[in-house]
Amino acid sequence: MKAIDILNQHNLKRTSCREGLLDVLIEAQRPISENQIRALLPGNYDRTTFYRSFKTLEENNIIHKIVVDSQFVTYALANEITHRHNHAHFYCHECHKVQCLDEVPVMSTPLPEGYEALEKEVIIKGICPECHA
Amino acid sequence: MKAIDILNQHNLKRTSCREGLLDVLIEAQRPISENQIRALLPGNYDRTTFYRSFKTLEENNIIHKIVVDSQFVTYALANEITHRHNHAHFYCHECHKVQCLDEVPVMSTPLPEGYEALEKEVIIKGICPECHA
DNA sequence: AATGAACTTGCAACATTGTTGCATTTGACA
DNA sequence: TGTCAAATGCAACAATGTTGCAAGTTCATT
Ligand SMILES: [Mn+2]
Ligand SMILES: [Mn+2]
Ligand SMILES: [Zn+2]
Ligand SMILES: [Zn+2]
Asked: What are the percentages of helix, strand and coil residues in chain A, rounded to 5?
């Protein structure tokens, strides 16, 4: 799926920032941060524009955001799986890469009386297979 | 338990910043942010000192940190329960309060081959009992 | 009580993440 | 191609966090 098609599908204007962002995220195939995206992106966009693009793309379920820590936030393409079921994320302390664990469903947690859960974020931190050698 | 006793127990120097921080967190009985702590704290400490205190207290398992979002981070006292088993946190979209769900254990997630989990953060967002009326 | 080493603090500077208002530019459609 | 709603760039600001270094504080020992 090309960036342009995705934007058209969602009736979003095709701007070079959005298109570039999406291209980079499609290419990356995993969650990356604003700075990482910026390094891979040809154009030079204002940070405000970047964040407004993130917001729009997230509201349209085209991308999703993973807050690893307050100082390390990543964005990744959404897909049918991630759009439908919630999924966990993994952060590797060694290589500092973030992964969508699409195949790891987020179990529903029984909450005490009166709590209404709307979203649930699960982030697991440890050592990834590549660094585990 | 008094702040001073906690510091002594952990062989930490008794400084007014640490003592004040702890007093506020003991009083609050729930996770609050740096700014909220600061508003409740008599003295006026440099932010660097604040953060160094947070770090020290966290390393000694006296407090723990809850990243609700990259722009909203809270700190709470740790207790025997939170120290021993991992627990989930709840954020209310209405009142913006954060709660430690001590009684809600974090289920161990079966990970794909090769992943070694060291930590796991679970944050549930929704509406709390008080706001659910 | 005074001493002194080790620890803590305050300040300056910087980095990451994110938002709002407003003037200007641009994309999409007629 | 012209129009207008939408997107962008810029300025300013806020929350969160770190590092280096000089100055101050704690606390054990004398
Ligand atoms: Mn994901
Ligand atoms: Mn907690
Ligand atoms: Zn790794
Ligand atoms: Zn509430």
From this structure: 35, 30, 35
pLDDT at B84: 66
Q: How far is CA A1 from CA A21, A22, A25, in A?
A: 14, 10, 12
List of chain B residues whose C-beta atoms are within 8 Å of the C-beta of residue A111: 90, 101, 104, 124
CA–CA distance, A121 with A109 (Å, rounded to integer): 11
Q: Angle formed by the axes of helices B47-59 and B16-28, to 10°?
A: 70
For B24-57, how does the pLDDT look when each residue is reduced to its tens digit (9 = 90+)? Answer: 999 999 999 999 999 999 989 999 999 999 999 9
Q: Which residues of B touch A132 (CB under 8 A)?
A: 114-116
Rounded to an integer, what distance in angstroms lies between the CA atom of residue A118 and that of residue B106? Answer: 17
Name the more confident of A107 and B100: B100
Q: Which of B93, B121, B128 to mutate to test the interface with A (most CBs of A within 10 A)?
A: B121
Considering every ligand atom shown, identify the ligand nearest to the alpha carbon of residue A91 and give its number. Answer: 3
Asked if A53 contacts A21 with a C-beta cutoff of 8 angstroms, the reply is yes
Which protein residue has its CA closest to C1' of D19? B48
Q: Domains in chain A, please, with CATH?
A: 3-132 (1.10.10.10)
Locus of tokens 């040809």? A42
Q: Do A126 and B110 touch (CB under 8 A)?
A: no
Instruction: Tell me whether residues B132 and A120 touch, CB distance under 8 A.
Output: no
A-chain CB neighbours of B58 within 8 Å are none
